[in-house]
Each structure stands twice: as structure tokens, then as C-alpha cells.
Specification:
Number of strands of chain A: 4
CATH architecture of the largest domain in chain B: Orthogonal Bundle
CATH topology of the largest domain in chain B: Rna Polymerase Sigma Factor, Chain: A
Distance between the termini of chain A: 82 Å
Shape of chain A: elongated
Largest interface: A-B, 53 and 57 residues
Distance between the termini of chain B: 28 Å
Oligomer: heterodimer
């Protein structure tokens, strides 16, 4: 094996930053002194890009966490002390699993974050399914809109918008990817304003009127 | 330059990127300690951090997405059961990949899927004049990606582990259960095959 052969075998580890000691010094010295070094490094970088692309073309399945939690509970039994918390997470991710491909990990994470916040802030440690967001019974009769998010919707954008405007997820997604979002509207004009605001967000694909306020 | 920065993954997946894992190495180990004490939130968090990369590794090992999901779950269930036996000299990611490798090999033996390698090897173009190669010349990156995919499994695995999973020579040896000298030899032949395939497709880079 020639010196170049040895260096070519080490270049991937030089690129990924794990080479050290004498081998690192040898590669650096070779790259600095051999005209073939720059070309070899460029070739290794191309391999790096292609390998990354080949791996990232594999999309992990939606609902993986839900199925893992189910498998864990099947093996270890229900969690003691906080039995309803994983159940809620399972419920959420089970719904996302059955949702269209457009409901991706980013939206899943956004709603996961909402559920966690609601559980933390829920008074008295009372638990229930995430569909009744925050265990707030008033949501059962609250005005709501029917919303479908874009496939590329980002967690941070949705979370911030819902939080800033006092909106809450009541249920969802349905089989066709639609969420029911509670709107804190006090009248018809307020409801229309919030619905329009929701429809105008870049992460919203569709926003339709659902239950309007009693006086609307 | 951060060579392993995530290039468009979602937020959850990007948590498993190598630089983040390195920065959170202690945290990963703390989570394993918590798992060893029966903390299920800790195992769920480790799942969210590492699931995507373990899943991709198993898909590349088995060629089956359906099989990969089951095996990936088994890897994290193994983590749940064996957390107390985790040797802290390893990165958690390396440990998980080692478990994944073992389970993927077992599953492959059961399904007698060795034929996959032969099919993939047959996909390597050996002529510079086919329409396929002509198309590849228009996109060297696409050609190289196909050549990486078509490498024999033992060679493609060291390429994946080094370039995508950011593993060192010794870590790859740990994952695959082979000496470091063998890791280097496999890397040499893997890159040599890629160079030869590129040359056959009209991209002579001067080595080998």
C-alpha cells in the first residue's frame, strides 16, 4: 500500500473530525505537500455529500414514537404514577400516524409541545385526553375553526402564533389532516378577525369557519 | 466549517446530528443512567434524539423499511433493558449503532436476504457507453450516490458510519466488532471501488 493509499483511507476520518495524533499530523502534512492532496480532499468531500444525501433520502416513519411507547408499555407494563401522560402522547402520535403525509414531524412536535405545556399547567394534576385541551370544559362549547397546516409548517411558527393569540388545539388531526382550533372570540367581528388572521399565516393551508360565537 | 451540520432535516431529526450528540454526550449518558433507574421519559427522549439515524442505519443494513422500524424499536427496548450495562467509555450513539448492527444482521440471516448484496453489486455500471452512464455524466453527484449505494454491504457500511454517522476508526471497529486495521482496509477498498466506478463513468480523479 502506497503512502497515497494510506492517506486516502484516512481522509474520511480527517473530514469527520475524528482523526487525531500521528495520523492527523500525517494527513495534514500530506495535504500540505502533495499536489494530489487537494484533489483527493475534493473527492472525499463529494463522497461525504453523496453519502449524506443517500442516508437522508430515507424518511423515518411518522408515528414512530407512538409505536415505540406502545412496545415499551407492552414489555414493561403501564407507567406508575403518571399513567395518563404517555397515554396522551400515544394518543397524539397515533393520530398523527394516521394523518396524511402532509402532517409531518414539525407539526407533530408543535402539537407535542402544546400537550406538554397543557399538562404542566393543568391544575391539580388532573389528566384527560389531549383532545380537551388543558381540561378546560369551556372549550367544549367554544367557537372554533377547522384548520389544515401546510406540509412544511414549522413547529416554532405554529407554537408562537397559537400562543400569542390565545388559540388552542381542541382536536385533530382528522383522517384528512384537519385540526379543530378554539378561537377566543367574544363576538362575530372578533371571530372573523381571528379566522382571517389564521388563514393568512404562511403555515396555514386551509382555515374554515366552524362554530361561531353565540352572538355571531 | 461544520461538515456534519444538518442540511434540511426537521427539528426532531436534527437533534441527532453528530455535533449535537457530541455536545450533549454527557447528557446522553445521564439519560442512560436515568433509564437504568426505570425513567421512561429518559428513554423516550433518547428515542427522539437518535431514532432517525438508527432507523436509517438499519434500512441501509437490511434494505427493508418495514423490517427497519421493528428493529429500531428493538434497539431502544434493548437500551431500556440493558442501560445498567452501558459502558461509559463509548458514546451512546456508538452503542446504539452496535446494537442495531447486531439485530440487523440477525434479521438478515433469518430472512436470508444476502441476495440483496448481489443485486446491488450487479447494479454497478461496467460500461462507459450505456445510456445510463451518459445520464450519470450529467450529474457526478447523482452518479457517486448511486455508486455508494451499490457498494458491497461491508464497504458501504464503513462509508455510512464515517461520512454520515461521524464515527471514528475505533468507533466503527466497536460497532462492527472488527479490528481498527480492518476498518482502514475496508475504507481503502470502499474508496478504491468508488474511484474505479467514477473512472468507468468518465470521472477520472487520478486515484486509484
Amino acid at each position: 500500500m502506497s503512502r497515497r493509499d494510506e492517506m486516502e483511507a484516512l481522509l474520511p476520518f480527517y473530514l469527520n473530525g475524528t482523526l487525531e495524533g500521528a495520523e492527523l499530523a500525517a494527513v495534514e502534512q500530506w495535504l500540505a505537500t502533495d499536489p494530489a492532496g487537494a484533489e483527493a480532499l475534493e473527492a472525499a468531500e463529494a463522497e461525504f455529500s453523496s453519502t449524506t444525501a443517500a442516508n437522508e433520502a430515507i424518511r423515518p416513519p411518522a408515528g414512530a414514537l407512538s409505536r415505540f411507547v406502545e412496545a415499551l408499555e407492552a414489555q414493561a407494563g403501564p407507567e406508575r404514577g403518571a399513567a395518563s401522560r404517555p397515554a396522551n402522547i400515544v394518543s397524539l402520535f397515533s393520530r398523527l400516524r394516521s394523518a396524511p403525509a402532509g402532517i409531518g414531524w414539525a407539526v407533530a412536535a408543535a402539537l407535542f409541545a402544546l400537550v406538554v405545556v397543557q399538562q404542566v399547567t393543568r391544575p391539580g394534576g388532573e389528566t384527560s385526553d389531549f383532545e380537551v385541551a388543558g381540561a378546560d370544559n369551556s372549550l367544549a362549547v367554544a367557537p372554533f375553526a377547522l384548520v389544515k397546516f401546510r406540509p412544511d409548517a414549522r413547529m416554532a411558527d405554529i407554537s408562537a402564533f397559537l400562543s400569542d393569540n390565545g388559540l388552542k388545539v381542541i382536536t385533530g388531526p382528522s383522517a384528512n389532516g384537519i385540526f379543530r382550533i378554539a378561537l377566543p372570540a367574544t363576538g362575530a367581528a372578533d371571530y372573523d378577525r381571528l379566522l382571517k388572521l389564521l388563514a393568512e399565516q404562511p403555515f396555514t393551508e386551509t382555515a374554515l369557519a366552524g362554530r361561531r360565537p353565540p352572538n355571531g | 466549517m461544520n461538515l456534519f451540520a444538518s442540511g434540511g432535516d426537521t427539528a426532531l431529526e436534527s437533534q441527532a446530528a453528530r455535533p449535537v450528540m457530541t455536545g450533549l454526550a454527557a447528557s446522553d449518558r445521564e439519560l442512560v443512567d436515568r433509564v437504568a433507574k426505570g425513567d421512561r421519559a429518559a428513554v423516550r427522549l433518547l428515542f427522539m434524539r437518535h431514532h432517525a439515524r438508527v432507523y436509517r442505519f438499519v434500512v441501509r443494513q437490511t434494505g427493508s423499511e418495514m423490517l427497519a422500524e421493528d428493529i429500531t424499536n428493538e434497539v431502544f427496548l434493548e437500551l431500556w433493558k440493558q442501560a445498567a450495562a452501558f459502558e461509559r467509555r463509548s458514546e451512546v450513539s456508538t452503542w446504539l449503532l452496535g446494537i442495531a448492527r447486531f439485530k440487523a444482521l440477525s434479521a438478515r440471516r433469518k430472512r436470508q436476504e444476502e441476495q440483496i448484496d448481489e443485486d446491488q453489486a450487479a447494479a454497478v455500471p461496467d460500461s462507459a457507453d450505456t445510456p445510463e452512464v451518459t445520464t450519470m455524466k450529467q450529474d457526478k453527484g447523482a452518479a457517486l450516490r448511486r455508486f455508494v449505494d451499490a457498494l458491497p454491504e461491508e464497504h458501504r457500511t464503513v462509508i455510512d458510519l464515517a461520512y454520515y454517522h461521524g464515527q471514528s476508526v475505533s468507533e466503527i471497529g466497536e460497532v462492527l466488532g472488527i479490528p481498527v486495521a480492518t476498518v482502514k482496509t475496508r475504507m481503502f477498498y470502499a474508496r478504491k471501488k468508488l474511484g474505479e466506478a467514477l473512472k468507468a463513468a468518465g470521472y477520472d480523479r487520478g486515484w486509484p
